[in-house]
What we know:
By secondary structure, the protein is of the alpha/beta class. Among the domains are: 2-279, 3-Layer(aba) Sandwich (Rossmann fold); 476-642, 2-Layer Sandwich (GMP Synthetase, Chain A, domain 3), CATH 3.30.300.30.
Amino acid sequence: MASAAADGRLDTFPRLLARNADTFGDKPAYREKEFGIWQSWTWAEARDEIEALAYGLLDMGLNEGDYVALIGRNRPHMYWSMVAAQMCGAVPVPIYQDSVGEEIAYVLDHCGARFVIAQDQEQVDKVIEVKDRLPALEEVIYLDKRGMRKYDHTHLRLFDLVQDEGRATRDKGEREMATRLAKQDGETTCVMLYTSGTTGRPKGVVLSNDNIIITSKNSAEFDHLVPGDDILAYLPMAWVGDFIFSVGQAYWTGFCVNCPESADTMMTDLREIGPSYYFAPPRIFETQLTTVMIRMEDAGKFKKWLFDRFMAHAKTVGPKLLDGEPVGAMDKLKYSLGNLLVYGPLKNTLGLSRIRVGYTAGEAIGPEIFDFYRSLGINLKQLYGQTEASVFITQQKDHEVRADTVGTPTPGVELRIDDSGEVFYRSPGVFVKYYKNDESTASTKDAEGWVATGDAGFIEPDTGHLRIIDRAKDVGKMASGALFAPKYVENKLKFYPNILEAVVFGAGRETCTAFINIDLTAVGNWAERNNIAYASYQELAGHPQVLEMIQSHIAETNESVAQDEMLSGCQIHRFLVLHKELDADDGELTRTRKVRRRIIEEKYDDLITALYDGAESVSTETEVTYEDGRKGSIKATLHIRDVKTVEARAPQAVAAE
């Protein structure tokens, strides 16, 4: 392996691994918390672990071009498995760890995986459950042996034993491994990642080494990432963002990937690591802020006064200091005092004290939430991307950060807006193809390499910043001819901590209506402070005072929407609070928590009908899926409320196509 990068080529991950082991050999590459203790591996140690696994897979008969599926939480061993598969000329295929058996069966069958590397008994059981339908599947390798002693091990192997076998057979396999490594280059397939599947079956996105490595290089240099940086790897490994951050940029830059012990300990582990480079979707930042505000409501009078006073000053001064704008000496002094008494301790509590670069993406983040973190001196920015782009399409430059745009094109990316308003891009990160789906590939990527994002937006002529309005397929017309952009309104609603999810209807209709999911943590705390007793999510969601609170939030949103002449017709006239949270296990959300709008419209057709026929309430029964896979049902009577709307200028009609 040491000779793999001798010619200076850094166009594959095995070559990047060799470079990192030679250059940063004694620096930490991976950390993992297990049983409450952090363990660490240097780049040199990581190379040894990866090579041992690769030779073990080679000895098991892994062929060039085979697909190796990985199911489990973020662990160094899982990241090692991806690169070990690449060394053998195989293609890693990460699968969402919370996928149910049917979802796993579809991916394994579609890619024809011969090998599966699973974290533990839970994931092995899911695979065994569907194995009869997977003729290509031959071997399952598992990391955690707890509960596995009495299983039939004919085609089950312990990860450690595969590595041991690899070390023992290394001499026998070195020539074959060298031959396979020499064949690989930038055009070799690096990974296959499946889309979230909002409108149908997930598609396998084939990404090459060039796609990932060049994009990682450009984006890392954009934000001046360095080997001494730390990142917390806690987002699903099947998501392209985790792959680009925890594999692509990590290998290009040589920084350390830190894996938390579990989802339950993530916030504690975040505080202990204190990453310098951090990504989180808006919901994480919203949840953290909600927790802070809940604690401040319960704090003593002096502490709350101190917090309110200094945060008011931070909102004025903090972003200016972060953006390098001039600030008066007294304001700087007061901000420094606030940093000592409030901002510093708060950032430390949140685990964000060392953040040098922070990003959020996936959904729009509320301006108040965005400004809150930046006022603390946290360099939080927005990016825009998708799986087919190897993540990065746009990023926000330092000192050009705004809540209402997603920045300018990442280096190497070209943007254009077509006549319908859809955003198109072209870049080195553009995917190779959709696996076994030439028709979808051709409809998404043209012969010149331009990719249709499916999002509607525009580029500001003065700044070059991209603004996203909505999903192009969801943008439609109301009966009046006014523009209908549901995501625009839904994002505004989700800016309220009490609202977890919103689904807006109105295409082809006279008015807009909405389903609402409450945030159980935020609303539950509010209920506790207001002496409101409840025994379940359903009971709290239907409480009259909760409905009044949500009604007031929607009325405020209507006032905001009314200010936009083009979208003022999207104000919500009626709503109901759903009796259950929308759930990926019930098919209502994707594994990345995107709303499956068409499925919701079909599943809750009776509720939508009630919203539009003037009913004051509606009784319904809904099938749900429990964590163990069993099916059940929930019966409820939901109350429907009208919401005050605001008279606005006559909305512009959309020209007929």
